[in-house]
UniProtKB/TrEMBL annotation:
GO MF entry, a single one: phosphorelay sensor kinase activity
InterPro entries reported for this sequence: HATPase_C_sf, HATPase_dom, His_kinase_dom, HisK_dim/P_dom, HisK_dim/P_sf, Sensor_HK_Regulatory, Sig_transdc_His_kin-like_C, TPR-like_helical_dom_sf
Enzyme Commission numbers on file: 2.7.13.3
Protein name, per record: histidine kinase
Residue ranges constituting the Histidine kinase domain according to the UniProt record: 414-630
Residue spans crossing the bilayer: 347-367
Residue stretches in coiled coil: 377-407
SUPFAM superfamilies from the UniProt entry: ATPase domain of HSP90 chaperone/DNA topoisomerase II/histidine kinase, Homodimeric domain of signal transducing histidine kinase, TPR-like
Nucleotidyltransferase among keywords: no
Gene3D superfamilies: 1.10.287.130, Histidine kinase-like ATPase, C-terminal domain, Tetratricopeptide repeat domain
Length: 642
């Protein structure tokens, strides 16, 4: 039961009981030491008495952890009483003990250095305080101790407030509060609320100072932090004094004085009576003000006498410690004699030890061989996996090449048929003309149809060349700023004759000021193919609408026809970049199927996207999105709607 109580006290103190507590006596002493820590802020004198009682028992037994922990408690308790000299001495004693094993008890080492840093802040030694805080922060980060890091933030907020770096002080206080709330540590949250209240008070923001001081006061009362509650009452009085609320200031000063008298914090009592004298002075009550100043003088004398008394007691304690050290040295000499006897026994044990070592070596060799075999097996498994992955990649590439080869075969089959016919017709007509079998008038009569065939043949050749270059990565995409209106006008002009011949109207709806970033030649090829397909599948007398609008950072160009449309299967085949597809137009116009493949390829090269929607009998709309170019100085913003 005592062990459980001790562990609970360690948890309350924010420490981990890493010292070896193997005996019932050690567990009992650990519980007393933790009880002493729990009384540090509310009953510092009782805390000091308990810590000295633990020290008297653990020093002869050389329990390093409990001895260092007891000195840490004495340092904290004397700090509560504003006895900074003793607080510093006990803190350094704890550090000297912990330095005997630098790699152990890191949490306690950090807490001791934090206590010293807080004491040095109150002694106005900010350089020494900052040095300790930096050491603790490095220690907390190295060991991933989040609570110790939060405690460091808590004391850094105090240091920064004292050095008038208020914004940084508030930031560190908020960091600490955020962590303490996650572990429901109301004691430390209340302390940081008090730090924020002090910072806002010095900054002249009395409203925020009063808000956080009230929060601190409520939590201090809840957790029983007598020292902090005394400071909270003092700051509440100071806020009221600065707001000229003198009666309220007197009320809180009375509470602060009563608490500080109970824990014998003479330093804060001096400050409280001094402020009370100033309040009475402002109220025009000279006699009470003089009485308070007299009380301040008495307290300062008491503080001086107490310091002298503590110095005498400390010298007596140091002498007692030196006497104990001499006794320990005598015992050490006696132990040396016993050690010689033990050496003989050790020699006997060496023989047995050598045998054990040899056995361990054999076991280690066997284990090492086993590990080596496992590594070889793992390496073979990884190589097999890599070979399987390479095989899958080769099969995937072979399948892709097969699909591409099939596409090329189909394309060249169609191209050979479509190109041979117009070229043969042209050859026959030229032969008839040169042989005087056909008159020039008859040649002119059929020239329009011949021109149409040649235009189709030229477009087929251009698409074939572009597609071939794209497959061989021979095409370079050089993007530049292009006006959408101008690009659409050029494409429509090239296809105007084809549209007139089918009695199809080309309608343009282009937003003003639309500039895109694309390759000029590739954009023209895209627009020509989309317009040609729209005219090709439009009925006689139909309309093809070309529109463009800005959509955020993209420009959407749409080509809409009201022709024969596409079925769902035809649409799926058309969008499949690895499947050849062609369809005759409304007047049996033929195509190679290359045009739409090239459009998909070039839109992708220009960082664009393509969307196709079609309904059989109602028409087709192809929408492409290309990046808008940055606006040039003096140019209007592109229209987002038509």
């Amino acid at each position: 039961m005592k062990g459980i109580i001790a562990l609970l006290w360690y948890a309350a103190a924010g420490l981990s009981p890493t010292a070896p507590l193997q005996t019932a006596d050690s567990v009992h002493l650990a519980g007393i030491a933790s009880q002493a820590y729990g009384l540090v802020l509310s009953q510092p004198d009782s805390s000091i008495a308990l810590a000295h009682a633990v020290l008297s028992h653990v020093q002869p037994k050389k329990n390093l952890y409990l001895e260092a922990y007891s000195y840490y408690v004495l340092s904290k308790a004397n700090w509560t009483k504003a006895n900074y000299r003793l607080s510093t001495e006990y803190g350094y004693k704890a550090l000297r003990l912990l330095d005997q094993d630098p790699h152990a008890y890191t949490n306690l080492r950090g807490l001791v250095m934090l206590a010293l840093a807080r004491t040095f802040i109150d002694r106005d030694d900010y350089v020494q305080a900052e040095e300790f805080l930096n050491k603790v922060q490095r220690l907390a980060v190295k060991h991933h101790d989040q609570q110790l890091l939060a405690d460091t933030y808590r004391e850094k907020s105090t240091l920064l407030a004292e050095t008038k770096h208020y914004d940084s002080a508030l930031a560190y206080a908020d960091k600490g509060i955020a962590y303490y709330r996650t572990i429901n540590d109301s004691l430390r949250v209340s302390i940081l609320y008090g730090r924020k209240a002090r910072a806002y008070l010095d900054m002249g923001d009395y409203a925020k100072s009063d808000l956080y001081n009230r929060k601190s006061m409520a939590l201090d009362s809840l957790v029983g932090n007598t020292r902090a509650l005394g400071f909270s009452y003092f700051y509440a009085a100071d806020i009221a004094y600065r707001r000229k609320q003198y009666d309220r200031s007197i009320h809180y000063l009375g509470r602060s004085i009563a608490l500080n008298d109970r824990i014998h914090n003479l330093t804060l009592q001096v400050r409280a009576h001094t402020l009370l004298a100033e309040v009475y002075t402002q109220m025009g009550q000279g006699i009470p003000a003089a009485q308070q100043l007299k009380r301040v003088s008495i307290l300062k004398d008491s503080l001086y006498n107490a310091e002298k008394s503590r110095q005498i007691q400390e010298m007596q304690s140091l002498y007692a410690l030196e006497t104990k050290d001499r006794t320990i040295e005598t015992l050490a000499q006696k132990n040396m004699v016993q050690k010689h006897r033990v050496e003989i026994q050790r020699m006997l044990m060496i023989v047995l030890g050598v045998g054990v070592v040899l056995l361990v070596v054999v076991i280690l060799l066997l284990v090492r061989l086993r590990i080596s075999q496992q590594r070889v097996n793992q390496a073979l498994a990884e190589r097999n996996l890599a070979i399987e992955q390479q095989k899958e990649e080769v099969e995937s590439q072979a399948e892709f090449l097969q699909q591409l080869n099939q596409l090329k075969s189909k394309l060249f089959s169609v191209i050979s048929h479509d190109l041979r016919g117009p070229v043969a017709n042209l050859q026959s007509l030229l032969h008839l003309l040169t042989a005087n079998i056909m008159t020039p008038q008859e040649f002119i009569a059929v020239s329009d149809k011949l021109k149409t065939n040649l235009n189709s043949t030229q477009r087929t050749l251009e698409n074939l060349l572009s597609w071939s270059l794209s497959q061989m990565d021979g095409i370079r995409t050089e993007k530049k700023t292009l006006a959408v209106q101008q690009a659409v006008d050029e494409a429509c002009a090239l296809l105007a004759e084809f549209a007139e011949r089918k009695h199809v109207t080309l309608e343009k709806q282009i937003g003003e000021g639309l500039d895109i970033l694309a390759d000029a030649n590739q954009l023209q090829l895209i627009l020509r193919n989309l317009l040609h397909n729209a005219i090709k599948f439009s009925k006689s007398g139909g309309t093809v609408v070309v529109s463009a609008v800005g959509q955020g950072t993209m420009c959407a160009v749409r080509v809409r026809d009201y022709g024969i449309g596409l079925t769902a299967d035809e649409k799926a085949r058309l969008l499949n970049s690895h499947e050849y597809f062609t369809k005759s137009g409304t007047q049996q116009e033929k195509g190679t199927g290359l045009g739409f493949l090239l459009c998909q390829e070039f839109i992708s090269r220009n960082n664009g996207t393509l969307h196709l929607s079609s309904t059989p009998g109602e028409g087709t709309e192809v929408s492409i999105s290309l990046p808008l170019a940055p606006c040039r100085p003096g140019m209007p913003e592109p229209e987002s709607v038509l």
